[in-house]
């Protein structure tokens, strides 16, 4: 990825990707050329060329060791012509997080990725700034001035949270690309899919200029449980928004649940319901396994909960719908099970501590938000 990709995240830090802790520089204080040709990124490239693992890439390393597909492997698939010994003069794949602006308070999220989390985070003592909105890119026009030539020739833009569909800089970038006739790039989104219009912007109208738009809707469960996990989700609004884009053939839609302790038991049900409601085609599911916070990681589950999950997934695989499950989707579910059962620090030494922390965090948020989930409670208390 350091040969083609640039991620801009919290505080404007330019990083290898959205999950590693490899920091190349600061987009607010450095030019793109300084970052892309700097000593730090070159050291990473040289290390990768030797084949030596980098412990900061633990996310991909752990997933691949469990037999699951990693972000690294997904990138290779999307850019098969990219060569690891050939550095592009500038990145062609951008992941830009302009700010933490978001209209949801998802349980697996935090203040750094959601402005809506601010008040809850202050009460819990987990806020990372003294204001709700944290701008990663300080000046949009300056950002365009620095990165404009690279943005014009980019092959892909990936937009994620905060929530891109309520982030104004995201719309400004789309308008700038359209104005400059640079609309051949693929657009990909990880979005809560709650808004198709924001202020004076109509995202469907802007998307009509681009040949390929992929929407990965971050819905972890349906109805009551879904609204519990992703606070501010309205299931009926989500269904209506899905209907609005069905006629747009250039928009590819997938469900992209974040797999955590909160929803792992119910993922087969979500998949079957999505098919029954014609939300997705059988291949259109992307399971995103959560690594952190550790107390939501599925590896911390006690044996009884894991046994229940295994029973539920076995029933799903062996049910009458088994012939309708595409091979890649069945593998995705199998990868989840393999990851859950993998022996790691989360699943051994710290398991009891993290399981207690999960229950404590759940109780604190339930009290703070005056809510509870009978489905989750039944799973936690299984005997």
Strand content: 5-15%
The tally of beta strands, per DSSP, is 14
Structural shape: globular
Q: Helix fraction? A: 40-55%
- Give, in order, the helices and strands: EEEHHHHEEHHEHEEEHEHEHEEHEHHHH
> Low-confidence spans: pLDDT under 50, at least 5 residues?
none
Structural class: alpha/beta
Question: Widest sheet: strand order?
Answer: 3-2-1-4-6-7-10-12
Instruction: Figure out the total of helices.
Output: 15
Radius of gyration: 21 Å
Write the layout of secondary structure elements.
Layout (H helix, E strand, L loop, with lengths): L4 E4 L4 E3 L7 E4 L5 H5 L2 H12 L7 H8 L5 H8 L14 E4 L8 E2 L11 H7 L15 H13 L3 E4 L8 H12 L6 E6 L5 E2 L2 E2 H5 L5 E5 L5 H7 E2 L3 H11 L5 E5 L2 E2 L7 H10 L11 E2 L13 H16 L8 H14 L10 H19 L4 H7 L3
Parallel strand pairs: 1-4, 4-6, 6-7, 7-10, 10-12, 13-14
Antiparallel strand pairs: 1-2, 2-3, 5-11, 8-9
In words, what does this structure look like?
By secondary structure, the chain is an alpha/beta fold. The chain has helices at 32-36, 39-50, 58-65, 71-78, 118-124, 140-152, 168-179, 203-207, 223-229, 235-245, 267-276, 303-318, 327-340, 351-369, 374-380, and strands at residues 5-8, 13-15, 23-26, 93-96, 105-106, 156-159, 186-191, 197-198, 201-202, 213-217, 230-231, 251-255, 258-259, 288-289. An eight-stranded mixed beta sheet has the order 3-2-1-4-6-7-10-12. Strands 5-11 form a two-stranded antiparallel sheet. Helix 12 packs antiparallel against helix 13 (327-340). It is globular. The mean pLDDT is 90.
């Amino acid at each position: 990825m350091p040969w083609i990709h640039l991620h801009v995240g919290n505080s404007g830090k330019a990083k290898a990707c959205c999950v590693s802790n490899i920091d190349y520089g600061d987009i607010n204080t450095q030019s793109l050329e300084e970052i892309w040709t700097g000593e730090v990124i070159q050291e990473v490239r040289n290390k990768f060329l030797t084949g030596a693992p980098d412990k900061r890439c633990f996310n991909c390393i752990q997933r691949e060791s469990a037999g699951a597909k990693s972000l690294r492997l997904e990138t290779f698939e999307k850019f098969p012509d990219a060569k690891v010994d050939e550095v592009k003069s500038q990145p062609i794949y951008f992941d830009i997080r302009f700010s933490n602006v978001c209209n949801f308070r998802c349980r697996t999220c935090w203040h750094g990725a959601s402005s809506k989390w601010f008040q809850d985070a202050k009460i819990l003592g987990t806020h990372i700034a003294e204001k709700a909105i944290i701008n990663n890119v300080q000046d949009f026009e300056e950002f365009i001035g620095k990165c404009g030539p690279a943005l014009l020739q980019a092959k892909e833009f990936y937009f994620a949270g905060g929530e891109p569909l309520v982030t104004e800089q995201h719309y400004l970038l789309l308008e700038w690309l359209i104005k400059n006739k640079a609309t051949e790039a693929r657009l990909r989104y990880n979005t809560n899919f709650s808004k198709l219009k924001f202020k004076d912007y109509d995202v469907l109208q802007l998307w009509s200029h681009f040949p390929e738009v992929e929407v990965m809707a971050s819905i972890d469960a349906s109805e009551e449980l879904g609204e519990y996990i992703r606070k501010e989700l309205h299931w009926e609004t989500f269904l209506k928004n899905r209907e609005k884009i069905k006629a747009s053939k250039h928009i590819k839609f997938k469900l992209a649940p974040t797999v955590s302790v909160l929803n792992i038991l119910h993922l087969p049900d979500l998949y079957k319901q999505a098919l029954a409601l014609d939300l997705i085609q059988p291949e259109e599911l992307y399971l995103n396994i959560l690594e952190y916070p550790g107390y939501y990681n599925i590896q911390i589950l006690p044996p009884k909960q894991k046994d229940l999950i295994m029973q539920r997934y076995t029933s799903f695989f062996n049910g009458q719908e088994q012939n309708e499950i595409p091979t890649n989707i069945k593998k995705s579910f199998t990868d989840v099970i393999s990851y859950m059962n993998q022996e790691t620090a989360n699943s051994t030494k710290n398991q009891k501590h993290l399981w207690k922390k999960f229950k404590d965090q759940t109780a604190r948020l339930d009290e703070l938000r005056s809510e509870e989930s009978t489905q989750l409670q039944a799973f936690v208390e299984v005997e």
